Amino acid sequence: MTANKKLFLVSTVSFTVLLNIATASAYVEELDDRFKNTRRADEIWLIEFYAPWCTFCQQLDPVWYEIGAELKSMGSPISVGKVDADVHRSLAKEFRVTDYPAIKLWKDDLKYNYRGPRTKEAIMDFADRVSGPVVRALPSQQLFQNVMSRHDVLFVYVGGTSDLKEKYFSAAKELIVHTYFFSATRHILPKAVTLEEYPAVVVFKEGTYFLYNEQQDGELVSWINRERFLSYLTFDSYTLYAMGDTGKVVVMAVLDEKKPTKDSIRYKTLMQRAATEYKDFYSREFQFGHMDGNLYINGIIMDELAMPAIIALNMSNDGYFLPPNKVETMEQLVKFLDAVSKGRIRLQGGNGYLQRIKRMVFNTRTTVTTILTEAPLLGALLFFVFGFVGSTFCFVLYKSCEMVRSRMREEREEAEALQSPGRDKNTETRKNPSEKKAD
Ligand SMILES: *[C@@H]1O[C@H](CO)[C@@H](O)[C@H](O)[C@H]1NC(C)=O
Fold first, then answer.
1. 243 CB less than 6 Å from ligand 1?
2. Does residue 363 have a pLDDT over 70?
3. Residue whose CA is closest, atom 3 of ligand 1?
4. 213-233: per-residue pLDDT in tens?
5. Does residue 289 form part of some domain?
6. Most exposed among 53, 172, 207, 224, judged by the fewest C-beta atoms under 10 Å?
């Protein structure tokens, strides 16, 4: 190939690439502080808040442009935008942005927060769910069966107009970020379902159904938060983090699924048995499951957890309980759960100020150790560079402090908002401990 031809080819290719990026990004609008006032009330917006220095944001860019293009080509009513939160701080503040990238959906007067894997599918599913009707009507048996087959956990309101219906709609408005909500008349329900009373709120899962009972179950929102998970879960950082809302203690086997051992299989089976056989007894207080790998858990307990292990975690305060003795039989597990429940085992960890600092130091140390063991030369080079540009480090430190400060402010505001009605409950701002700071 002659040099000329090569040049031609290279320029054509790069032109095509540029064109692709240009057309893809054409469906994502760059927003600024003025947006608050210019957005029309009936518009629905999916917005990413980013910062120029945040690498996770850059990784999200191609996904974000794809989402923009795809929603456009589907004729979706959702507009897609992005905001440089470092520059347009008042908009970021309005959306209570503390971590980057933050993904929000603005519909009517509500701002919904997305927390989950940053994949196109997951984000589009969220956008579709939240932008649609808060409660979806199921007008026929066929549709009911169809929806049943597609959802592991299905919330349905059965009945006509009532106080309960109003409560259901308001709960759905808040929790639509997590799950779908449906309504039906009693004639639509499968024959096997016999409800003693109408109206009713029912959850269908694991081949059976449970009725909400206000006296026993308390607030509808809390009940939905407890019931929206299957009784046994394979945890990832997102589901584990979501457990904070349930008020349940997570009891799990932590194991290396690539290297199953006799012990790890035994631990997993024990958790599965506790979830099914002891469901009535424990499901209000405990959520059972397992997690592959100890990376995330190490970050919480600030130590290396030897696998396989059994651990109980309180995700409302990042505290944890380790069994003082071996837990290998159901009897030993029951003893352990009982001790956790009655407060007879000391809670370790937590999210006090000191614990948070300790956790930051631990995570930094882990990152450094990983770099040093996996790429010693690169590590040495990095240290050299770090020493050289210490100012960068100071900047990062300053940024984290700023973030911690703004988060504390936020939590205070949230606590105050709790006392006033009509708060924007969906703008959740707690940080996912697995997501290392993007800076
Ligand atoms: C979990 O943490 C919350 C919030 O600090 C607390 O109210 C609850 O009692 C804790 N549960 C257990 C079993 O320690």
1. no
2. yes
3. 316
4. 999 999 999 999 999 999 999
5. yes
6. 207
Strand 249-255 relative to strand 309-314, pairing: antiparallel
* Distance between CA atoms of residues 215 and 140, nearest Å: 31
Q: pLDDT tens across 137-170, in order?
A: 999 999 999 999 999 999 999 999 999 999 999 9
Q: Which of 24, 47, 51, 57 is catalytic?
A: 57
- Residue 216 CA to ligand 1 center (angstroms) comes to 20
Instruction: Band the pLDDT of 312: cuts 50, 70, 90.
Output: very high
Q: Is the CB of 317 under 6 A from ligand 1?
A: yes
Q: What is the pLDDT of residues 28-66, one digit of tens each?
A: 999 999 998 899 989 999 999 999 999 999 999 999 999
Residue 84 pairs in a beta bridge with 50
The CB of 31 under 6 Å from ligand 1? The reply is no
* Per-residue confidence (pLDDT) for residue 426, from 0 to 100: 41
**pLDDT greater than 80 at residue 323:** yes
Q: Which atom of ligand 1 is nearest to the CA of 321?
A: 14
| Domain CATH code at residue 189 | 3.40.30.10
Question: Do 330 and 261 share a structural domain?
Answer: yes
Cα 291 to ligand 1 centroid, rounded to whole Å: 21
Average per-residue pLDDT for the chain: 84
Output the CA 341–ligand 1 centroid distance in Å: 10
What pLDDT was estimated at residue 427? 39
The Å distance, Cα 314 to ligand 1 centre, comes to 6
d(CA 220, CA 224): 6
Is the residue at 422 inside a domain? no
Range of the domain at 318: 230-355
Q: 423 alpha carbon to ligand 1 midpoint, in Å?
A: 24
Q: Is 314 in the pocket of ligand 1 (CB under 6 A)?
A: yes
Query: pTM for this one?
Result: 0.72
Q: Of residues 46, 47, 54, 271, which has the active-site annotation?
A: 54
134 within ligand 1 shell (Cβ under 6 A): no
Q: Calculate the alpha carbon distances from 315 to 176, 199, 228, 368, 434 in Å.
A: 21, 34, 16, 27, 13
394 is catalytic: no
- Say which residue the tokens 């009535």 belong to: 280
Q: Look at ligand 1, atom 13, and give the residue with the nearest C-alpha.
A: 341
Q: What is the per-residue pLDDT across 174-195, written as a single tens digit (0 to 9) for each?
A: 999 999 999 999 999 988 888 8
How does strand 78-84 pair with strand 44-50?
Answer: parallel
Q: Is 153 left (phi over 0), alpha (psi -120 to 50) or beta?
A: beta
Same domain assignment for residues 92 and 143: no
Spatial neighbors of 116 by CB under 8 A, at least 6 apart, are 122, 123, 126, 238
Give me the number of domains the chain comprises. Answer: 4
Mean pLDDT, residues 340-349 taken together: 91
